[in-house]
Amino acid sequence: MNLKFKPYKNKDFFINLPLGWRALSKKMVYSFYNKDGSGALQISTYTQTKGKIDLTEKLVRFMNEKSINDIIKKSKGEYDYVEKSFVKNKFFTYVRILSAGSYFALITYNCHFDNIDKSELIIAKKIFDSFKFNIKGN
What we know:
Layout: E1 5-9, E2 13-18, E3 21-26, E4 29-34, E5 39-47, H1 56-65, E6 74-76, E7 79-88, E8 91-100, E9 103-112, H2 118-130, E10 132-133
Antiparallel strand pairs: 1-2, 2-10, 3-4, 4-5, 5-9, 6-7, 7-8, 8-9
């Protein structure tokens, strides 16, 4: 798969978006999709004005309580995150929740389980991995 990507930047984050994917935004929720694809990727962000956000441990507990098990806190550079893929009510969901200082993001990719396109899942993972907060100085 030799897919070309272009940078997508807004006031909250950067990602690498495949050429041909569309972007929509509505009240701090950003959606990305391929019009010929099987699913969509959504990103929601939050910035706390005072102090540091350390929600990952709480989110691990919350997701485990919702029967989304085996969640493990991970780190990548300055980010702490949790991630998991699961099927519930015939929908496949891949979710990553990140925090860095006072910044927080929820990234999801979902599609109907009967329509899973494995190549699109690989692309979604590449988009997830390209995510960076738009922290002053970047």
